[in-house]
Amino acid sequence: MIPHPQPLALSTNDNAKEWLDEHCRTSLEQARRLVDELKAAPPRETLAVLRQWNDIQVALSNVASVASLFSEVHPLEAVRGGAELAMQEVQKLDTDLGLDRDLYEVFAATDPAGLDPQASRVLAKTLLDFHRAGVDKDDATRQRIRELSERAIVIGQEFSKGIRDDVRSVRVTPDRLDGLPQDWVDAHPAAEDGLVTVTTDYPDVIPVSTFGKDAQTRRELQVAFHNRGWPENDARLQELFAVRQELATLIGYPTWADYDAEVKMIGSGRAIMEFIDKIADAALESGRRDREVVLARMRQDVPGAQTIDGADLRFYAEAVRRESFDVDAQQVRTYFDFDRVRAGLLEVTGRLFGLRYRPATDAPVWDPDVTAYDVFLEEAPGAEQAPAEPLGRIYLDLHPREGKYKHAAQFDLVRGVRGRQLAEGVLACNFPRGLMEHDDVVTLFHEFGHLVHHVLAGRTDWVRFSGVATEWDFVEAPSQMLEEWAWDADVLRTFATNAAGEQIPAGLVENMRRADDFGKGYDARTQMFYAAMSYDFHVQAHEDLTARTRQLQGRYSLFPYIEGTHMPASFGHLDGYSSAYYTYMWSLVIAKDMFSAFDRADMFDPRVARRYRDRVLAPGGSRDAAELVTDFLGRPYTFDAYAAWLAQ
Ligand SMILES: [Zn+2]
């Protein structure tokens, strides 16, 4: 019988730094010792070599997961700093291992005969990793690759920090905040000098851009927002792109984009550009149509306006939605009280995936805002009793605080391995404490999609395939599909109730959906602008990133560049996604296709939901994503469902 693993014993904050240092030190020591043993006396059996390699990967992932999480969310600066150092150390070791000739020889000498399919897959992927790390290059080249890899990590961290720490603000008289919701106004009193501070953090930027009637305030805030990280991050980006290009060339690929795409569903750099253009074409007609509607609405306020840009778009698109679709976001948000939404999320996903969540009251948390739950898998749909042992543990860290990650993302805390360690994951988001926008609710469902994927796929034997370990351009698909449940009237009515206890009306949800679909064409064009930027910066060098951004915006976005802004400096995905920002849209194409297997009239149909859970999510990275999707749909994925949706 396989023993059941226990959750990781986190420390309380009084000795969090010591705990983190010790956790990372022992795991790194263990990894180094196992590597030495593997090189000095490799087991004769290929399977035993792979198992020892798996042990090493488990130890490394245990450092990387915790360090990556705490560097972004821990409230203590010393812990964040220590975690950043640990990240650098584990990534350096990872780089060293990838370039270690002696270690590579151990794998090159193995015989794959007799391995089961999973072990064969581990071996093939491991050999490809070594090749992609540059292990087969000469000593001088390997040394240069090592320096470049280390440098890329440091610049990437500086770039992210440059965005995170650069919270800008505009200060305005209260009358310039006309239109903002009352609870937001109450939370933003004027200072002694009579001015209100509005920051570039999302809980300020989103409501002010959406509801603020004063065009000048919106514009000033938009300019501040798109100047975060500027100018320091511009030089960091230039260096990052140059380092990546040199790395790709040294390893034997024409561009970084080709190198990066090799291990994704899309396969090649050229295919990225083809995909971007295909989406841009498909989106043009409905994008132009909806832009004209927004511009016409703007002309009611600004007679003769010839064009509309990002400083006015959100405000007027909201006006169109409110006036033409009868959706008043301020009314909508009265149905989305944070506590009820969080409870509803757990209820909905529990029912859909056959899961139960039990508050883990004994789990130490790094901030009082964080809630922890143990996740149990129901033995059979509708079973009375959940099994005694949890499938994993999740932490929800959902409100902003100083020094915390500014966006919304899922982090691993522990990657699950069968019989060995329990899958644990974290959501880090920045939602308001009271009423949420419906967009926030959609984001919460989206991020939870990653979390549930991480937990459900946490019982593989090989850590390499554990959790969200599929190709990177597939990882968004399960999350994007889960968003559909946050758009369904029957689903929303289970938890979206206002202060008087009234459920959100089905008609309102229907209008919200139509309103949300409004602008999908121009939104897709904007996304393709970002994707083109991410790709283009990684295939050719540009002296002036702002100038190139402006060109690409002109080609792909349906909205013009705002003078005086430097958007790439705060486009954090240029670090994490590098040339692969297209993945959001690629995943959406597949998400729409997978969702076509569900019946809108019965979103919880257990046969479809469990088949999806077991065939797409639970396998993690143990098969190619295209195979998982084919296995679920009974046919290969196609572009059709997405194109039909876009054309509406
Ligand atoms: Zn996502």
Query: In percent terms, what proportion of residues is strand?
Result: 5-15%
Low-pLDDT stretches are none
Name the average pLDDT: 95
DSSP helix fraction: 55-70%
Largest sheet: 5 strands, mixed
Characteristic key phrases:
single chain, 648 residues, mainly alpha, five-stranded mixed sheet, 26 helices, 7 strands, 6% strand, binds zinc ion
Topology:
Layout: H1 16-40, H2 46-73, H3 77-98, H4 101-108, H5 117-133, H6 139-164, E1 169-172, H7 182-186, E2 196-199, H8 202-211, H9 215-225, H10 232-251, H11 256-261, H12 269-301, H13 313-324, H14 329-332, H15 338-353, E3 355-359, E4 371-377, E5 392-397, E6 409-414, E7 423-428, H16 438-456, H17 476-482, H18 489-492, H19 506-517, H20 520-536, H21 545-556, H22 573-576, H23 583-595, H24 606-617, H25 625-633, H26 640-647
Parallel strand pairs: 5-7
Antiparallel strand pairs: 1-2, 3-4, 4-5, 6-7
Helix pairs in contact: 1-2, 1-3, 2-3, 3-6, 6-10, 12-13, 12-20, 16-17, 17-23, 20-21, 23-26, 24-25
Bound molecules: zinc ion (ZN).
Zinc ion is lined by residues 446, 450, 476, 479.
Write up this protein.
The strands form two sheets. A five-stranded mixed sheet has the order 3-4-5-7-6. A hairpin with an 8-residue loop joins strand 6 (409-414) and strand 7 (423-428). Helices cover 56% and strands 6% of the residues. The mean pLDDT is 95. The chain has 648 residues and is mostly helical. The site of zinc ion (ZN) has 4 residues, from helix 16 and helix 17.
